[in-house]
Amino acid sequence: MARRRQLYEGKAKILFEGPEPGTVVQYFKDDATAGNGAKSGIITGKGVLNNRISEHLMLRLQEIGIPTHFIRRINMREQLVKEVEIIPLEVVVRNIAAGSIAKRFGIEEGTRLPRSIIEFYFKNDALGDPMASEDHIIAFGWAAPHELEEMTGMAMRVNDFLCGLFNGIGIQLVDFKLEFGRHWEGDDMSIVLADEISPDNCRLWDIQTSEKLDKDRFRRDLGSVKEAYQEVARRLGILPEA
Ligand code: C5P
Q: Coiled-coil regions in this chain (predicted)?
């Protein structure tokens, strides 16, 4: 494919101008960072796996009527997505206490939460993505009230569906992070699921052994990071050759 203009480079992905107006190419890198860039490394082959895993999950979600930015996978490391205006929020859904919620409230990791919990963080690297309340989001204009309601509803539906999907392959969906974007068609705007869904932004534990099959293996120096991502792809039935 012809050389394309780069629009943005993030920690794990690069966005290029797409072949048609209103499209963007999302390129998956092997780079991994943790602690807002405090730790970084390369996990060879991670980009290929996340491209495939995210494609698979976005397609399954589209099938149940969740609108997403995903159009099609182009090659091993790239996918074509709709151009959207990213809403500057990280929407985290949690089913089991782990990571920051366990630390913040002194809950033992692995404790099932009384119900699924949704949290919002303001996407801002310089500030370290601070947690934000619904009131902060509305008052500072990061999203309108109806957008927040829509994102919350979609996040809960995504959670219900993905919990079932992963449960069926022996994996517990502990928590995950979503991002949403505004997609414009003429004067019509709709909110769509954007970014990626992969072991980089989900916590996935084996139901039998509680083995971590996600980015915590990198964050906590547990080793076998690529093998864990491969295992998720294998169980999803999409292990790419390579
Ligand atoms: O660190 P914390 O426990 O708040 O993370 C909750 C979930 O959100 C985890 O699945 C983590 O992978 C994801 N996350 C993310 N990007 C961030 C922060 C958290 O994908 N910047």
A: none
pLDDT in tens, 28-56: 999 999 988 899 999 999 999 999 999 99
Q: Which of 15, 24, 1, 13 shows the shortest CA–CA distance to 80?
A: 24
Nearest CA to ligand 1 atom 20: 201
Question: Which residue from 122, 177, 197 has its CB within 8 A of the most atoms of ligand 1, so it is best to mutate?
Answer: 177
Q: What are the Cα distances from residue 240, in Å, to 14, 34, 49, 75, 77?
A: 21, 25, 7, 11, 11
Model pTM above 0.95? yes
Alpha helices, H only, the chain: 46-63, 99-105, 134-139, 145-167, 216-219, 225-236
Instruction: Kindly give the number of the ligand 1 atom that is closest to the alpha carbon of 101.
Output: 3
- Whether ipTM tops 0.90, in short, is yes
DSSP assignment string, 27-45: EEPSEEEETTTTEEEE-TT
